[in-house]
Amino acid sequence: MYQKINNVNFIHTLRRCFHIDYIIFDIDGVLIDVKKSYNEAIKNTVQFVVRNLIKKDLKDLITDQIILKFRKTGGFNNDTDTSYAIILALLSYQDLQNANLEKFLIDVAEHADETGIDSVEKYIKKLTSNKTFPNYLKNIDKILDYLNYPGKVGDSIISTVFDEFFYGQELFLKRYKIKSKYYFGKPLIENDRIVITDNTIRKLIERFNSKIAMVSGRSKIAAAYALDNKFHLLNEKNSIFLEDEDRKFAKPNPYGLKKVINKINTRNDILYCGDSVEDLIMARRAEEELNQKNIKTKTSIVFCGIYGCSSNKDELISKFMEKKADIIIKSVNDLPHILNKVS
User: Fold this and answer.
1) Is the pLDDT of residue 259 over 90?
2) Measured at the alpha carbon of residue 272, what is the angle toward residues 268 and 277, in degrees to the nearest 5?
3) How far apart are CA 13 and CA 7, in angstroms?
4) pLDDT bracket for residue 42 (50, 70, 90)
5) In 39-49, which positions are buried (b, 16+ CB within 10 angstroms) versus exposed (e)?
6) Closest CA to 81 of 116, 127, 122
7) How far, in Å, are 49, 57, 146, 165, 244 from residue 53 at the CA level?
8) Could you report the per-residue pLDDT of 310-333, keeping only the tens digit for each?
9) How far apart are CA 342 and CA 20, in angstroms?
């Protein structure tokens, strides 16, 4: 098990950990393993849309590694955005029999950045406008119009198909007050696997009492369904579920984390646990913006990077180290042990 406290400024990090009195969690990849739910929703959405448009079966092309390539850019915390980026790339590339198609998707991901789908659209438009590249569609405006993304569920085919796959008929109706149109099978949310144990929750409650919250890209309905009886133990009243907010507030926008910190009204050291570069960027931005407005009392956000649910653990560890995460651990269940070390 890899465990690390940032050695760049070890004593400073140790002191910050000692004074932590509030803990905030991301959900996906931290409290829940989503490789068989959200990742599968991306693959199924890509397959459905591409097959219906050009009659090609490309689901097996979309691997967890390609999805991770997009996520680690810092601009793809929203998995519907990832679905859109992959679909747009596939539809812009004319030679779908080409063995280099997977390399092309990786190339698109490597040219993406924190601006997410904007960076992908910009790169693909650059490629499609270049006459020296015969394999690219020369006019993608019709595709962009058809995909209508970003668009709301019920308006955009990508948003709608993705959430129908993920939620299933019953939860989809509960979430959006409209009936499923494209998918009527087993909800992929049922493939979520809870990582955090009852023992870990008990130990964290003993240490933090009610000073626990969540900042997640999920909706509240999805979080409650997946976490089941653990949901209320993690103090959902002080939590933020970004899918229920305007999409402009999606990670790495610090809005959600700042809102929780302002709600709990604390300026002591806070531990935020996330599984992605977006989470780390969000934590750094939130700390900076909170301290710009509160010069007298500083807010310190200690970032704990969790890698155990990643499809490429070594790569995520390297990314956390490169971005100077304060703590890097395999599982949320290692937290009580780590916190005891610095108490």
Assistant:
1) yes
2) 135
3) 8
4) very high
5) bbbbbbbbbbb
6) 116
7) 6, 11, 10, 18, 30
8) 988 998 999 899 999 999 999 999
9) 10
Mean predicted lDDT score pLDDT of the chain? 86
- Kindly state the greatest CA–CA separation across the chain: 64
**Where do we find the tokens 């570069």?**
277
Domains of the chain from N-terminus onward: 3-34+193-341 (3.40.50.1000), 38-190 (no CATH)
Tokens of 321: 């180290």
CA-to-CA dists, residue 219 to 216, 230, 333, 341, angstroms = 8, 16, 24, 34
- How many residues in the chain? 343
pLDDT in tens, 198-254: 999 999 999 998 899 999 999 999 999 999 999 999 999 999 999 999 988 988 899
Q: Which residue has the tokens 């509160």?
A: 294
CA neighbor of 186 nearest in space, from 218, 159, 161, 164: 164
173 pLDDT band, cuts 50/70/90, is: very high
Q: Where are the alpha helices (DSSP H) in 148-232?
A: 157-176, 198-208, 220-227
| Token pair recorded at residue 151 | 């668009």
